[in-house]
Amino acid sequence: MKLQEYLKNIKSMSDEKADLISTYFIQKSFTKETLLIQEGKTSKNSYFLESGIIRCYIIDLNGNEVTTRFFSAPDFLNDYLSFFEQKPSEENYELLTDCVLYSISYDNVQHCFHTIPEFREWGRMLLTLNYTFVNKKMISLYKETAQERYLNLEKTNPEIIEKVPLHIIASYLGITKFSLSRIRKEIQELS
């Protein structure tokens, strides 16, 4: 899905405004394993993911990579705290596949917020969706079993189950890759 189409799907945005906003974005292609945003560096751009899969991860106290989130096309992504506060990121954003992205600079985001009311409303919607996702994920870690979390991921993002290595999915679910293998085996036996 192209950027303009994604913007036009928002009910409060006209074709004209979506086309105008898209002029502030630059299309770029990146290869698998690229670090789009790096821990300790300030996020200078916000992104629309046209194709591919990206994961966010941190390094825990034991030196292990812990996946905190996935993005799969089409989606908008950024380390919102780093970007809007212009502070160093606490996470890494790694491309798990080759990706096509559209980037918009911090200055252009600010310009659009101040001059295009539809962009401001759209930005508010993105922040609300991001908060909702983070809140639901936090609650699911305490109220759902690992199997339920896996099945929810499979239902909502089957492309992640198909294309992402198991150890990364296990990290996201808060379990070991051995536990994930057992869960997948149990699910297959029930099918």
From TrEMBL:
Pfam families: cNMP_binding. InterPro entries: cNMP-bd_dom, cNMP-bd_dom_sf, RmlC-like_jellyroll. The lineage of its organism: Bacteria, Pseudomonadati, Bacteroidota, Flavobacteriia, Flavobacteriales. It comes from the Bacteria. Residues 9-111 form the Cyclic nucleotide-binding domain. Gene3D superfamilies: Jelly Rolls. This is CRP-like cAMP-binding protein.
